[in-house]
Amino acid sequence: MDKEKSKAEQLKEQLFRKNEHFTARFDADETAKADAFCEGYKAFLNGAKTERECFGWIVKHIEEAGFVPFDPEKTYAPGDKVYFGNRGKSVILCVFGKESVANGVRIVASHIDSPRLDLKPTPLYESDELGYFKTHYYGGIRKYQWVAIPLSLHGVFVKKNGEKVCVRLGEEPGEPQFVVTDLLPHLAAEQSKRTLADGIKGEELNILIGSRPFKDDEGSELVKLNLLRLLNEKYGITEDDFISAELELVPAFQARDIGFDRSMIGAYGHDDRVCAYPAMEALLAVDVPVKTSLTVLTDKEEIGSDGNTGLNSAYLHDFIAELAMQAGVPVHRVLGKSSCLSADVNAGFDPTFPQVHDKLNAAFLNHGAVITKYTGARGKSGSSDAHAEFLGWVRAALDSENVCWQIGELGKVDEGGGGTVAMYVANMNVDVVDLGVPVLSMHAPFEVVAKSDVYSTFRACKAYFSYEK
Ligand code: MN
Ligand code: MN
Predict the structure, then answer these.
(1) Fewest C-beta in 10 Å: which of 20, 207, 215, 318?
(2) Cβ proximity of 179 and 150 under 8 Å
(3) Of the candidates 139, 155, 162, 179, the residue with the CA atom closest to the CA atom of residue 52
């Protein structure tokens, strides 16, 4: 028989907040569900590595689930499923709710762009008989992490006649890959004196792409010539076509289970596809939501959300304005009654680097979706800092479905900081809070998440869409 609990134990149980591990909270069936959910997520990771590829993958997936392109001239009924695509790089999924749009909408917003190496407009050159691409990195990368790893090339050429040529090379078995070279330790004495931030400099992130010269002739730049000959054969392009191209180098790794227990996933670009996928699946899993519900999968977050496919542009506002017009109310009235989960990752507590976290306010792997009340840096600057009233409502929504969740900050107060799309949505007078998956090695070429947290984020988004109050 169990020993009777002491008064202190009883009182602790009543008063202390529990921050339980997923496996302490649920049985093995729930872990099996998390694992099964993550098989779909891994397929998404491997099938779509850039915002354009994510867009294509998502549209195909949601059309199979019955979503059709939004038609502003049409009126919609509860349960109708539509989507609005923005320039092939961001997409809004919408399921009409039981209540009128006049009562506000519920939004989950996450991003499908990830840090990477973009080609410069004039990228191709030859140096000492080796061929290279010049790059300009996209987003907050630690440059030293991007050398000496296999890279694949993704993107498009757009020719002057408008023809679009898609590129995806280095993902399939047998396809060539690309790499940024680094110095050998024997000759790196001077380089090793650089700080880690400068260990590799931006202009040193040059992609090795070939070494065989064009054979038949004498002359200069014969390696470059041979490369252009091959590119012309494969893609029908000339050097000028790089001007109207968007080509991105990303890690060529496939998503893999991590650990003997297979409890985690290692992959490129968890930030933020690890929230985009659950946010999408949650909306697909809701039949007829209470409020009209939107999952926004956006571009440009990693470079500050500017640009017309990012959430600092009007496209989300304008889509909601279309819904408001149909409901016969001005858009500002809809926005003022709307709410949003900004579904983005947070830093998971890393025991190897405990010094950057306040352990009391850090997010831990396997403790569920992490709510981040505010992000920002230097005293919450650049953050929307969610209202206590809204957090109270979100807690109730998550607990109503017994979702595994935790609350956390992004590192110690003076340690650094970051931002998400939360503030741009908040600036439309919408209530917003961040919620997402804790990540280890965030923004590295190979990031790590726990499967139970991916699944918990799916359940959190679903609870948010389904909550009746
Ligand atoms: Mn992010
Ligand atoms: Mn990020």
Answers:
(1) 215
(2) yes
(3) 155
CA quadruple 111, 284, 88, 40: dihedral positive or negative? positive
Q: What distance in angstroms lies between residue 253's CA and the mean position of ligand 2's atoms?
A: 19
State whether the Cα torsion 405-59-286-331 is positive or negative.
positive
50 contacts: CB under 8 Å, gap ≥ 6: 113, 114, 116, 154, 155, 248, 250
The per-residue DSSP string of 363-418 comes to B-TTS-EEEES--EETTTBT-----HHHHHHHHHHHHHTT--EEE--SS-TTT-EE
Per-position pLDDT tens, the chain of length 469: 567 899 999 999 999 998 999 999 999 999 999 999 999 999 999 999 999 999 999 999 999 999 999 999 999 999 999 999 999 999 999 999 999 999 999 999 999 999 999 999 999 999 999 999 999 999 999 999 999 999 999 999 999 999 999 999 999 999 999 999 999 999 999 999 999 999 999 999 999 999 999 987 788 899 999 999 999 999 999 999 999 999 999 999 999 999 999 999 999 999 999 999 999 999 999 999 999 999 999 999 999 999 999 999 999 999 999 999 999 999 999 999 999 999 999 999 999 999 999 999 999 999 999 999 999 888 999 888 999 999 999 999 999 999 999 999 999 998 888 889 999 999 999 999 999 999 999 999 999 999 999 999 999 999 999 999 9
Residue 54 near residue 112 (C-beta atoms within 8 A): yes
Cα 271 to ligand 2 centre (Å): 5
H or E, element range at 294: strand 292-298
> In angstroms, rounded to a whole number, what is the distance separating the alpha carbons of residues 331 and 91?
20
Task: Tell me how far CA of residue 150 lies from CA of 146, 249, 252, 270, in angstroms.
Answer: 9, 10, 6, 18
Say how far apart CA 421 and CA 408 lie, in whole Å.
17
pTM to 2 decimal places: 0.97
Ligand closest to 275 (CA) is 1
**Distance, CA 413 to ligand 1 centroid (Å)?**
19
Residue ranges and CATH numbers for the domains of the chain are 17-114+268-466 (3.40.630.10), 116-251 (2.30.250.10)
| SS3 of residue 121 by DSSP | strand
Q: How far apart are CA 139 and CA 212, in angstroms?
A: 33
